[in-house]
Specification:
The chain has 14 helices and no strands. The protein has 315 residues and is mostly helical. The chain is elongated, with a radius of gyration of 25 Å. The relative contact order is 0.07.
């Protein structure tokens, strides 16, 4: 009990430090750009005097131990989620929360459920990050038609493309304002405007905006009335969004059925475990029981993913 309580205290302390380090500096696009432009300063290894320095040391050590491809993937995902955390900081957060869940559940229930709780906590962190990425991309796509309308109005007023993008920074809601602010920062640092816009389309995983950037690129090369093109693209996007809303309304029952079917077996299992634990003892004490639990978990996950795929039509 003493060792478990000590581990829990260290896990909570590291988790608090991770949250403080990850939220310092905000999550705006300007903060992200300044983080990537500024030189990365390492702490002095001989004079570590604060929890912030310990946190930075652990994050750097953990980040250097993972391969470059995986580190770049985590960094890109954090960037798409609008987070100011580094890959090492996020990995520390995942590990600390997983260890904390293992310790707490092991002290309260047992080692078997403690390991399961730790794995579920790690998976929940990955799902939470993916959900933040999806929400941010969906918000950007929902605001795209209004952004294009504002661009067309600014171009008709005689403003240049750079001045139009600056208007988007000041007048658009988040996350569009943050992303266009990063585009303007990259342009001021010498990046070509078309490359910066294409990078925004790739970062937000927006096929519609990539078409817009293609139209802007063609207009810069051959000329023409860009405002008319942006109006037509905005109208097309609005129609697609209306159809997308109708599809989501029609598939709501299937998505709700998937959640119910996926959550009902674990809920019943936990209810029986806490009310009649002896009934489920053979599943934990015998090899055949553990095999059946693993098989049931695999079938439950595969069935949930299949139902999710059926309830999310693409058009």
């Amino acid at each position: 009990m003493l060792v478990g309580a000590s581990l829990l205290f260290l896990a909570v302390l590291a988790l608090v430090v991770t949250f403080r380090g990850g939220t310092n500096g905000g999550t705006t696009a300007l903060g992200l750009a300044q983080n990537r432009v500024s030189h990365r300063q390492r702490p002095n290894y001989l004079s570590v005097a604060s929890a912030r320095d310990v946190h930075r040391l652990l994050a750097d050590a953990l980040e250097n131990r993972i391969d470059t491809k995986r580190r770049q993937g985590v960094a890109l995902k954090l960037e798409r989620a609008g987070s100011n955390m580094k890959p090492g900081e996020w990995l520390i957060l995942v590990l600390v929360s997983g260890v904390g869940a293992v310790v707490v559940v092991t002290l309260l229930v047992g080692i078997s459920l403690g390991v399961i709780a730790g794995c579920c906590t790690v998976l929940a962190n990955h799902l939470r990050l993916s959900r933040r990425v999806g929400q941010r991309e969906a918000a950007f796509s929902a605001q795209l038609s209004e952004s294009l309308q504002l661009m067309a109005s600014s171009l008709r007023a005689g403003l240049s493309l750079a001045q139009t993008l600056q208007n988007l920074v000041t007048d658009s809601p988040s996350p569009s304002s943050e992303e266009f602010l990063r585009v303007m920062t990259e342009i001021r640092l010498g990046r070509d405007i078309t490359e910066a816009l294409y990078a925004l389309a790739e970062r937000m995983n927006s096929e519609d905006f990539s078409w817009v950037v293609g139209a802007v690129d063609i207009n810069r090369t051959t000329g023409g009335d860009l405002a008319v093109i942006l109006d037509r693209v905005a109208d097309t996007i609005r129609q697609r969004e209306r159809i997308h809303g109708q599809v989501r309304a029609l598939s709501a029952e299937g998505r709700l059925s998937g959640w119910v079917v996926g959550l009902l077996p674990p809920a019943v299992f936990l209810f029986v475990y806490f009310t009649n634990r002896a009934y489920l003892t053979p599943f934990f004490e015998t090899g055949r029981g553990r095999l059946l639990l693993g098989l049931a978990g695999m079938l439950l996950v595969s069935g949930g993913l299949w139902l999710r795929k059926l309830a999310r039509p693409r058009f």
